[in-house]
Design brief:
Elements: H1 2-9, E1 13-17, E2 21-26, E3 30-36, E4 39-42, E5 47-48, H2 49-52, H3 57-60, E6 70-73, E7 76-77, E8 80-81, H4 84-98, E9 109-113, H5 119-131, E10 137-141, H6 142-149, E11 160-165, E12 170-176, E13 179-186, H7 190-205, E14 207-208, H8 211-221, E15 232-239, E16 245-251, H9 252-258, H10 260-275, H11 279-288, E17 290-293, H12 302-310, E18 314-316, H13 323-333, H14 335-338, E19 343-344
Parallel strand pairs: 1-9, 9-10, 11-17, 17-18
Antiparallel strand pairs: 1-2, 2-3, 4-5, 4-6, 7-8, 10-19, 11-12, 12-13, 14-15, 15-16
Helix pairs in contact: 4-5, 6-13, 7-8
């Protein structure tokens, strides 16, 4: 009875706290919020614009376009909090926007975090969420949440493998019997792919572009493996020599070359995870294969590259951008079942 009253008064929340985007799912209602992890401030005062509402999509539109009086920043880098006050302000905005709290009730929150974060970094997440208005806070490993969200049989005595390529980190894990058997987390992911394109354009085209332009190039013509029909795209930037704006034409082959370094790092992370997995579980992977999730999984032909290099089946989840959020939401729906396997904070029960 008490649990039903709590659910009606103040539904629990599932939060995928990402470097690039934050997703919030409301208990029993699915994903309600999917917005960039960006906050816009008045420069010098650190006051969030719009009375605390210049967060997410509105703030992201300001990245790289603000006057001197305004700055748009990301409170997280490489999957961890770099600015506690701003992360707290961002979470408070999202919790209030998604929450249904009444009569003093605070929503319990399950938050997905990278597997490689330190105890100090975990404590920063607990503190930021609790100060932002959450009640009891639980943390779940992003790779585990991705496995649950992808519908993998992680509770069975069978190896399931997932690779979640987010904005700040890549999480790779082999799961069995409800938990991670072998896991790796590296801080090479979507942001590094964008930075590699920025650097390539500077080195080979003498053209300075921003990270948002690089991201659009990655989406338009980026690929990890040769395409049946290669693509081209126009790109505008600042000429490094003359200092004036100009345009250039870039091909998918050139962008693929730019992405080679970060993709090799991700591939090596997957190989290292497999090499440290017990032979009995590796045998399962020959049939079960690897599931790709996260925004990086949308890179063209990434599954083909990994299939060729690893020799196991590779598939992209049907909605990779929301896989972790879906898995975290499932944990919220069945919190009594999953509670003992989560890291718990010290907030209100």
């Amino acid at each position: 009875m008490l649990s039903r009253l709590r659910r009606w008064l103040c539904p629990d929340l599932a939060i995928d706290l990402g470097t690039a985007n934050t997703l919030v799912a409301v208990q029993g209602e699915g994903v309600w919020i999917d917005e960039p992890s960006v906050v816009a401030l008045e420069r010098g005062t650190r006051r969030v614009l719009g009375r605390g509402t210049a967060v997410g999509k509105l703030a992201r539109q300001m990245l790289g376009r603000t006057p001197d009086s305004i700055t748009a920043v990301r409170p997280l880098k490489d999957g961890v909090i770099t600015d506690f006050a701003l992360c707290e302000a961002m979470l408070r905005y999202f919790i209030r926007k998604a929450g249904r709290g009444r009569r003093g009730w605070k929503p319990r929150c399950v938050i997905a975090v990278p597997g490689g974060i330190t105890p100090v970094e975990k404590r920063a997440v607990f503190n930021s969420a609790e100060r932002a208005g959450a009640g009891r806070v639980y943390l779940i490993d992003e790779a585990k949440a991705a496995g649950i969200g992808a519908g993998l049989p992680i509770s069975e005595p069978l190896a399931s493998m997932v690779c979640d390529i987010g904005g700040g980190t890549t999480e790779v894990a082999v799961l069995s019997l409800g938990d991670i058997v072998v896991g790796r987390s590296i801080r090479t992911a979507g942001d590094e792919l964008d930075e590699a394109i920025v650097e390539y354009m500077k080195q080979h085209f003498s053209l300075k572009i921003g990270e948002q332009t690089a991201e659009q190039l990655k989406i338009k013509v980026g690929s990890a493996f040769p395409l049946e029909q290669e693509l081209t795209a126009d790109v505008s930037g600042l000429d490094c020599v003359s200092g004036v704006p100009r345009k250039a034409v870039v091909t998918s082959e050139e962008i693929r070359e730019a992405l080679r370094g970060p993709l090799e790092a991700i591939l090596n992370c997957i190989k290292s995870t497999i090499e440290n997995t017990k032979p009995e579980l590796v045998a399962d992977l020959a049939d079960q294969g690897l599931v790709l999730t996260g925004g990086g999984a949308l890179l063209r032909n990434l599954d083909l590259l990994l299939n060729e290099q690893l020799g196991i089946p590779v598939r992209v989840d049907e909605d990779p951008l929301r896989t972790v959020a879906r898995g975290t939401a499932i944990c919220v729906e069945h919190l009594a079942q999953w509670r003992d396997s989560l890291d718990a904070g010290d907030g209100d029960v």
